[in-house]
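Per your request, structure below.
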């Protein structure tokens, strides 16, 4: 370790601002220190290469909410909270963020009390400097005693992100959320970056949602109720029809909310793709076989789709028939003749003739559940 780096660690500073200013000069990089709730505590002079994300943080005395949301989505905050190692962060151009090295600041019990952010807009830190910063993080923790750590309480957004990433502490959350007698799930509503429906959505969800946020496009909420399905169905009915709403699977434990959040995201994606089949559904488990379309398509890419699909496509083109659509409706309606005939606006006798013709052309075995399910999934990939 060079003398300058050794000296920095042994020197005493009168306050955190002096500490940060000295560190910024030593590394020749802009430095920012914030508490665990992302409120700004100290920063070094800008120097050259300061980016707009840092300027916004300094002006607002807090990291912008949209950037905090992005850090949680990208796993940055989870990584910092789970490890004392330096984390290399790529620039995010849309937020005006240049490259960063970040570390968590911890107290004597290894709890996170803040973060150090080093901007690499003018130079890249060496591996030695990255590892040396772990000693800096230990030293800077002693200056946090000058600040009331709990003066600025965590926001609802921060609490919710910690629940969604399963990094929460029970002391961070309302005691009611730890109660396992209520069902809980994560809910997402795609507002398409429009805020005109936000007030109505908040009014509908507030009685059920102790934690919620709007991240610029999605309204995300942790909802809880003794029996969650009925009140959420009522809310879904009251929602504007152009909004898409989805929920992860219910769970009585808070630990299940990280998985429920991933399921809610996937359900939104499925509802966007399979609008006709899933529009009226709410929970991830209700998507049924649609949940497996993605993994199935990856495997089908290698093994190819059922040849019956191409056979019927060719037959329909040559004979101006609708046998492929007939097969699709028949499988969607669980092989129910009357329901399928109504959907196609034909007589059941006509449907029976079409089904017979389909099996003659393709040799498919519609009584075989494995082949029937495979065909159903292959046809979903045609949408």
């Amino acid at each position: 370790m060079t003398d300058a780096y050794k000296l920095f660690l042994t020197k005493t500073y009168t306050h955190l601002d002096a500490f940060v200013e000295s560190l910024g000069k030593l590394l020749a990089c802009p430095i920012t220190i914030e508490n665990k709730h992302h409120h700004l505590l100290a920063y070094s002079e800008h120097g050259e290469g300061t980016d707009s994300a840092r300027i916004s943080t300094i002006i607002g005395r807090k990291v912008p909410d949209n950037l905090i949301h992005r850090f949680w989505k990208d796993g940055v905050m989870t990584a910092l909270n789970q490890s004392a190692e330096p984390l290399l962060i790529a620039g995010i151009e849309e937020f005006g963020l240049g490259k960063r090295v970040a570390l968590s600041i911890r107290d004597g019990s290894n709890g996170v009390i803040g973060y150090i952010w080093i901007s690499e807009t003018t130079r890249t830190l060496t591996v030695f400097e990255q590892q040396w910063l772990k000693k800096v993080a230990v030293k800077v923790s002693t200056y946090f005693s000058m600040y009331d750590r709990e003066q600025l309480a965590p926001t609802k957004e921060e609490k919710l992100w910690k629940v969604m990433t399963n990094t929460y502490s029970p002391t961070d959350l309302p005691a009611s959320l730890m109660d396992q007698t209520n069902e809980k799930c994560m809910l997402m509503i795609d507002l398409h970056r429009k805020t005109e429906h936000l007030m109505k959505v908040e009014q509908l969800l507030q009685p059920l949602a102790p934690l919620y946020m709007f991240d610029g496009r999605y309204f995300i909420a942790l909802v809880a109720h003794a029996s969650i399905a009925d009140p959420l169905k009522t809310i879904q009915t009251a929602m504007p029809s152009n909004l898409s709403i989805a929920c992860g699977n219910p769970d009585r434990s808070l630990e299940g909310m990280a998985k429920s959040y991933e399921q809610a995201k996937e359900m939104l994606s499925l509802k966007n793709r399979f609008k006709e089949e899933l529009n009226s559904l709410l929970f991830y488990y209700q998507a049924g076989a649609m949940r497996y379309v993605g993994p199935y398509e990856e495997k089908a890419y290698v093994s190819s789709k059922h040849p019956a699909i191409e056979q019927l496509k060719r037959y329909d083109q040559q004979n101006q028939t609708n046998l492929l659509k007939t097969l699709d409706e028949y499988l969607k309606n669980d092989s129910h003749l009357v329901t399928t005939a109504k959907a196609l606006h034909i007589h059941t006798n006509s449907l029976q003739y079409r089904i017979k013709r389909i099996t003659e052309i393709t040799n498919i075995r519609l009584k075989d559940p494995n082949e029937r399910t495979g065909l159903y999934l292959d046809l979903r990939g045609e949408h």
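The first helix runs from residue 3 to 10.

Regards,
D.
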